[in-house]
C-alpha cells in the first residue's frame, strides 16, 4: 500500500528525512511546517495524516496545535486523521491520540506505521460512506458508537516474571485482559479470540521472545496488531519492527508501557469495531455490529423458518441457551464474539439483554447438539476472564432442547429455558 494524498510534517528543525521518505512512498503534497505554523497548515489542507517529526518544546504551541486539530476534525467530519509522533524516550506522545515512535527509529518505520494506521482510516471512510448512502435513500442506517473503543478492547499479556502482577493490574484497569504464562497458552488465546494488542512481559528468554515475534510476523492477521515488549531484548526486537508496524519495546515499568501502548490499542479496537459494522452493513442490518451474531428480529425470523423447514424435511434441529454466572456487559460481548467465531456456518445465534445467548444448530439431533454445546461451553469457560479476576474463567450453564414432532417455536423455547443439560 503506497501513501496517497496530502500529509503535514511538523518540526522546528529541518525534517528532510521524514519529508523525503513520505514523498518517496507516494505522498503528495507534503507540507513541512513549524510548530507555530502547524495550525495554519492544518487549516489549509485536509491531510491524510500528520507526522510530528520532533517533540514540541513549547506548551503554548502544542496547545494551539491541539485546538487546530480539533477544529480540523470537526470541520472535516470525515474519517480519522492518524498522527505519528516522535518521542525522545519511552513516554507517551505529547498530542492526544497520537501514535508514539522513538526519535531514533528509521524513517522506514514511520512509513510502515503510517500505512498501518491509514488502513483504519480507509476502513472508517468506507463505513461513513455506506452510512451516508443509506441515509440519502431514507433507509435505516447504523450509527457509529460514541464510546471510547478501549471499552471494548482486549489485550493479551504474556509473561511470568516479577513485574507480571503489576503489569496485569495496569493493563486490566484500562481494557479487558487475557493472561498467558507461556507462549503455548498465548498462541491458543490468539487462535481462539480477537485481541487488540499483545504485551510480552518479563520472565521469557530471548529465544522465546524471538519465537513469538517470528510467529506474529509470519501471519498476515497480525501485521497491524499492536505488540509491546517490556524490558530488555533490544537485539531481538529490532529485526521485527518493519514486519510488525506497531511493535514497541518499552524499557521502563508497567505504567510507562501502558501510557505508551494505549493509543495503539485504541486504534486497533476502532478498526475491529468498524469491521463489525461493515459486516452488519453487508448483511443489511441483520447482524449485530457489537457481537457479530444475528439481531433479535432476524434471529426469530430465521428460527421460525428453520423450524418449518425441519418439520417439512424431517431433519433434526436443536437449540441451546448459554448463560454466564457473574458476567458483566464486557464479558457478555466477549462471549458473543467468541461464539460468532466458533459456530458452524449453518448455525445462527443472538444475544439477549441478560447476556445469555440462544444458539440454533440446524440439521442436528440432540446427541450431536449436546457434543457441540459442551465444546462451545468448554472454550468459553477456559477463554473468558471473570470480572472480579478471582476465578480463572466464567461459569457457563447450558440448557438444550431438540425439536419434537409436536413442537412449535414457543414450546421448543419453553423447554430450552427450563431444561438443564449441562453446566
The largest sheet is: 5 strands, parallel
**How large is the radius of gyration?**
24 Å
Topology as a string of helices (H) and strands (E): EHEHEHEEHEHEHEHEHEHHEHEEHEHE
What are the segments in which pLDDT stays under 50 over at least 5 consecutive residues? none
Strand content of the residues, in percent?
Answer: 15-25%
Here the CATH topology of the largest domain equals Alpha-Beta Plaits
CATH A-level architecture of the largest domain: 2-Layer Sandwich
Mean pLDDT: 87
Question: Any descriptors?
Answer:
single chain, 423 residues, alpha/beta, Rossmann fold, Alpha-Beta Plaits, 3 domains, five-stranded parallel sheet, 13 helices, 17% strand
Outline:
With 423 residues, this protein is of the alpha/beta class. 44% of the residues lie in helices and 17% in strands.
Task: Write structural notes for this entry.
With 423 residues, the chain is an alpha/beta fold. It has three domains: 7-142, Rossmann fold (3-Layer(aba) Sandwich), CATH 3.40.50.10850; 149-267, 3-Layer(aba) Sandwich (Rossmann fold), CATH 3.40.50.2300; 286-422, Reverse transcriptase/Diguanylate cyclase domain (Alpha-Beta Plaits). Helix content is 44%, strand content 17%. It is built from 13 helices and 15 strands. The chain has helices at residues 16-24, 38-44, 59-76, 107-136, 164-172, 183-192, 206-217, 234-237, 254-282, 296-313, 329-342, 366-383, 409-418; strands spanning 7-10, 30-33, 49-52, 83-87, 99-102, 154-158, 176-180, 198-200, 227-230, 247-250, 317-325, 348-351, 357-362, 395-402, 420-422. It has a five-stranded parallel sheet, sandwiched between helices. Strands 7-6-8-9-10 form a five-stranded parallel sheet, sandwiched between helices. Strands 12-13-11-14-15 form a five-stranded antiparallel sheet, sandwiched between helices. Strand 1 (7-10), helix 1 (16-24) and strand 2 (30-33) form a beta-alpha-beta unit. Helix 1 packs across helix 4 (107-136), helix 2 packs parallel to helix 3 (59-76) and helix 4 runs parallel beside helix 9. The longest helix has 30 residues, at 107-136. The radius of gyration is 24 Å and the shape is globular. The protein starts with 6 loop residues before the first strand and ends with a strand. The mean pLDDT is 87.
Amino acid at each position: 500500500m503506497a501513501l496517497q494524498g496530502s500529509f503535514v510534517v511538523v518540526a522546528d528543525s529541518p525534517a528532510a528525512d521524514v519529508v523525503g521518505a513520505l514523498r518517496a512512498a507516494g505522498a503528495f503534497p507534503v507540507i513541512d511546517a513549524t510548530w507555530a505554523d502547524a495550525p495554519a497548515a492544518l487549516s489549509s489542507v485536509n491531510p491524510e495524516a500528520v507526522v510530528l517529526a520532533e517533540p514540541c518544546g513549547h506548551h503554548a504551541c502544542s496547545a494551539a496545535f491541539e485546538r487546530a486539530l480539533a477544529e480540523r476534525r470537526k470541520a472535516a467530519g470525515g474519517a480519522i486523521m492518524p498522527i505519528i509522533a516522535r518521542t525522545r524516550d519511552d513516554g507517551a506522545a505529547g498530542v492526544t491520540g497520537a501514535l508514539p515512535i522513538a526519535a531514533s527509529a528509521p524513517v522506514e518505520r514511520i512509513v510502515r506505521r503510517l500505512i498501518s494506521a491509514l488502513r483504519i482510516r480507509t476502513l472508517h471512510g468506507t463505513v461513513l460512506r455506506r452510512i451516508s448512502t443509506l441515509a440519502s435513500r431514507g433507509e435505516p442506517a447504523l450509527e457509529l458508537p460514541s464510546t471510547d473503543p478501549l471499552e471494548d478492547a482486549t489485550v493479551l499479556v504474556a509473561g511470568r516474571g516479577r513485574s507480571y502482577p503489576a503489569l496485569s493490574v495496569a493493563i486490566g484497569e484500562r481494557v479487558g485482559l487475557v493472561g498467558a504464562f507461556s507462549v503455548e497458552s498465548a498462541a491458543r488465546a490468539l487462535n481462539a479470540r480477537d485481541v487488540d494488542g499483545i504485551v510480552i512481559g518479563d520472565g521469557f528468554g530471548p529465544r522465546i521472545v524471538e519465537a513469538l515475534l517470528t510467529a506474529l510476523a509470519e501471519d498476515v492477521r497480525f501485521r497491524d496488531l499492536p505488540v509491546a515488549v517490556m524490558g530488555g531484548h533490544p537485539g531481538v526486537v529490532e529485526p521485527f519492527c518493519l514486519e510488525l508496524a506497531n511493535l514497541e519495546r518499552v524499557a521502563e515499568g508497567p505504567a510507562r508501557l501502558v501510557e505508551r501502548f494505549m493509543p495503539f490499542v485504541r486504534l486497533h479496537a476502532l478498526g475491529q469495531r468498524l469491521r463489525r459494522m461493515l459486516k452488519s452493513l453487508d448483511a443489511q442490518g441483520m447482524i449485530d455490529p457489537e457481537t457479530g451474531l444475528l439481531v433479535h428480529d432476524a434471529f426469530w425470523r430465521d428460527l421460525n423458518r428453520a423450524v418449518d423447514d425441519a418439520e417439512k424435511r424431517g431433519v433434526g434441529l436443536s437449540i441451546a441457551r448459554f448463560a454466564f454466572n457473574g458476567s458483566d456487559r464486557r464479558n457478555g460481548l466477549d462471549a458473543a464474539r467468541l461464539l460468532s467465531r466458533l459456530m458452524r456456518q449453518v448455525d445462527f445465534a443472538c444475544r439477549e439483554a441478560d447476556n445469555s445467548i440462544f444458539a440454533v444448530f440446524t440439521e442436528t439431533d440432540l446427541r450431536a447438539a449436546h457434543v457441540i454445546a459442551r465444546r462451545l461451553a468448554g472454550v468459553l469457560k477456559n477463554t473468558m476472564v471473570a470480572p472480579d479476576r478471582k476465578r480463572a474463567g466464567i461459569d457457563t450453564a447450558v440448557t438444550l432442547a431438540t425439536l419434537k414432532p409436536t413442537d412449535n417455536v414457543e414450546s421448543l423455547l419453553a423447554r430450552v429455558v427450563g431444561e438443564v443439560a449441562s453446566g
